[in-house]
Design brief:
About 40% of the residues lie in helices and about 20% in strands. By secondary structure, the protein is an alpha/beta fold. Helix 2 runs antiparallel to helix 5. The protein binds nicotinamide-adenine-dinucleotide.
Length: about 475
C-alpha cells in the first residue's frame, strides 16, 4: 500500500518533528500494511502556521477561482477512484463494491457540489440599508473518524475551501492512507501551498493539540460524543467556533400501513452497510405489535444474505470488535432474544462480528440506548403512534431516522414528531446537498450543501 513517511504541510511532504509512527492494519486479516508518522504538537503548530500564512491570499481569491480549483480537486478524486476504493478496503475493511460506490463515489459528488456552490453562492446580500458580506471564518482544524474516512474529510475540507478558509486536517489513526491520497489530490489540483495541510497522529496528542491551538478559528469534529464533548468545552473556553458531528441511535419506524417486507429489507441493509459503522444507521427497528412476529421473521431472512467476508466486512479494529461483541453479550444478559448472529466470531482471522438481530428488545435496554457501531439490529414493538414516537425519541441522540407508511403524507406527519436531523421517507435516498447533522447530543451544526457552507462563513454588515 502506498504511504508517505511525512506530513503534507505548506505544499510539500515534510518529515515529522518526532520519530514515532502508527501502524496501519488491514482489519480483514490483522496484517500491518503500512506505517505513518505520529504527529506531535510541534507538527500541528507548523501546519497551523502554514494555514494562517496562506489565509489572506486564499480568502482574497474570487469564488470563481476557488470553484475552478475545487473542480480540479473533484477531477483528481474521480480519476483516482479505483485507488481510493482499494485503499479504503485495505485500511477499513469494507467490501470493494461498497468502497467503490460509497467511499470513493460520494466524495466526488460532494466535492463537485462545493465547486458548484462556490460559483453560485451569494457571498454578499442586501438587507435594507446594509450590505452583508459572508466572509471565511479563518483557519479550520478538521478532526475526522475512520468510518467514512474520505467522505468525512471532503465534507469538511471542500466547504471550508469554498468559503475561503484554510485547513489543517488530523484524520483518524486507523485510516490515514486515504487521507494521504487526498493530500496528493489537493496538490495535483494546484491548490496553493498552505491552504490544505495534513498531520497524521493520535487523537489525544495531535488531535488535542489541533483542537486547542490558538491559531485555529473553527474546530470541525466528527467522532464519538465523549471526545466531542471535550472539544466543545475547549472551544467554548476559547470562544471559538465549533461544529460537532457525533453519534446516533436512529429509529426506523414502520407504520402499520407500510409495505412491511420492503421496509424490513431496506432497514436491514441500512444497518449492515459498512459493517454497521455508520453514525446515522437505523439500528432500532420499531414495528407495530400486530406485525411484530412477521417483521422479525423477515429480518432474520434478510440478514442471512450478509455473509461475513463477502457482503459484510470486518470491524475497523480489534477494540471495536470487542466493544460490539460486548454489547451483544449485554443484550443477551438483559433479556433480549438473539434471533440471528450472536457474540461468537464468524471467522478465524480478521475483526469480524456476526450480523446480529435482537428481538424482544425493550426501550430501556443498553442495546436500545447506546450506539453500538456494529452490524447489530434491535427490533422493538410499539402499541400505537404515540408509543412509537416516545420510543423513537427516547434516547440522548437525534441524528437520523426513517418512517415507512402506505402514503408519504402519513409518514411525513409522523416524521414531524421526530427529534432528529434527518428522516428518510419510504426509503428516500441519500441527498449529498441536504443538511446533515444532529438534534440533541448528536451534535452541533450541519454538514453538506449550502447549510454546510455557512458553517465556514461569518457575516460582516456594512451600513449605507
Ligand atoms: P473518536 O472520537 O475517539 O475519534 C474520532 C477522531 O477524534 C479521530 O481522528 C481521533 O484521533 C480524534 N481524537 C480522539 N481523541 C481526541 C482528543 N482527545 N482530542 C482531539 N481529537 C481526538 O472515535 P473512535 O474511537 O474512532 O470511535 C469510537 C466511537 O465513536 C464509535 O464506536 C462510535 O460510537 C463513535 N463514532 C461516531 C462517528 C460518527 O460519524 N458520528 C464516527 C466514528 C466513531
Amino acid at each position: 500500500m502506498k504511504q508517505h513517511d511525512a506530513m503534507y504541510i505548506d505544499g510539500s511532504w515534510r518529515p515529522a518533528a518526532g520519530s514515532g509512527t502508527i501502524d496501519v492494519v488491514n482489519p480483514a486479516d490483522g496484517q500491518v500494511i503500512a506505517a505513518v508518522p505520529a504527529g506531535s504538537a510541534q507538527d500541528v503548530d507548523a501546519a497551523v502556521r502554514a494555514a494562517r500564512a496562506a489565509l489572506p491570499a486564499w480568502a482574497a481569491t474570487s469564488p470563481a477561482e476557488r470553484a475552478g480549483l475545487l473542480t480540479a480537486l473533484r477531477d483528481q478524486l474521480a480519476a483516482r477512484a479505483e485507488e481510493i476504493a482499494e485503499t479504503v478496503t485495505a485500511e477499513l475493511g469494507s467490501p470493494l463494491a461498497f468502497s467503490t460506490a460509497v467511499h470513493a463515489g460520494v466524495p466526488v459528488a460532494v466535492c463537485g457540489s462545493y465547486a458548484e456552490l462556490a460559483r453560485s453562492y451569494a457571498f454578499e446580500e442586501k438587507i435594507g440599508n446594509s450590505t452583508v458580506l459572508h466572509e471565511p471564518v479563518g483557519v479550520v482544524g478538521a478532526i475526522t473518524p475512520w468510518n467514512y474516512p474520505l467522505h468525512q474529510v471532503v465534507a469538511k475540507v471542500a466547504p471550508a475551501l469554498a468559503a475561503g478558509c484554510t485547513v489543517v486536517l488530523k484524520p483518524a489513526e486507523d485510516t490515514p492512507l486515504v487521507a494521504q491520497l487526498f493530500a496528493e489530490c489537493v496538490d495535483a489540483a494546484g491548490i496553493p501551498a498552505g491552504v490544505f495541510n495534513l498531520v497524521t497522529g493520535l487523537g489525544p496528542v495531535a488531535g488535542q493539540a489541533l483542537a486547542e491551538h490558538e491559531g485555529v478559528d473553527l474546530v470541525s469534529f466528527t467522532g464519538s460524543t465523549a471526545v466531542g464533548r471535550k472539544i466543545g468545552a475547549a472551544a467554548g473556553a476559547a470562544v471559538k467556533r465549533v461544529a460537532l458531528e457525533l453519534g446516533g441511535k436512529s429509529a426506523n419506524v414502520i407504520l402499520p400501513s407500510a409495505d412491511l417486507a420492503k421496509a424490513v429489507g431496506v432497514g436491514v441493509a441500512n444497518v449492515m452497510a459498512n459493517s454497521g459503522q455508520t453514525c446515522s444507521a437505523w439500528t432500532r427497528m420499531l414495528v407495530h405489535e400486530d406485525r411484530y412476529a412477521e417483521a422479525v421473521e423477515l429480518a432474520v431472512a434478510a440478514v442471512a444474505k450478509y455473509v461475513p467476508g463477502e457482503r459484510v466486512g470486518p470491524l475497523v479494529n480489534a477494540k471495536q470488535r470487542d466493544r460490539v461483541r460486548g454489547y451483544i453479550e449485554q443484550g443477551v444478559a438483559q433479556g433480549a432474544k438473539v434471533v440471528a448472529g450472536g457474540p461468537e466470531a464468524p471467522r478465524e482471522t480478521g475483526y469480524y462480528v456476526k450480523p446480529t438481530v435482537f428481538a424482544d428488545v425493550t426501550p430501556e435496554m443498553t442495546i436500545a440506548q447506546e450506539e453500538i457501531f456494529g452490524p447489530v439490529l434491535s427490533i422493538l414493538p410499539y402499541r400505537d403512534e404515540d408509543d412509537a414516537a416516545r420510543i423513537a425519541n427516547g434516547t440522548v441522540y437525534g441524528l437520523a431516522g426513517a418512517v415507512w407508511a402506505g402514503e408519504a403524507e402519513e409518514a411525513v406527519a409522523f416524521a414531524r414528531r421526530l427529534d432528529t436531523g434527518q428522516v428518510d421517507i419510504n426509503g428516500g435516498r441519500f441527498n449529498p446537498l441536504a443538511p446533515f447533522g444532529g438534534y440533541k447530543q448528536s451534535g452541533v451544526g450541519r454538514e453538506l450543501g449550502p447549510h454546510g457552507l455557512t458553517e465556514y462563513l461569518q457575516t460582516k454588515s456594512l451600513q449605507f
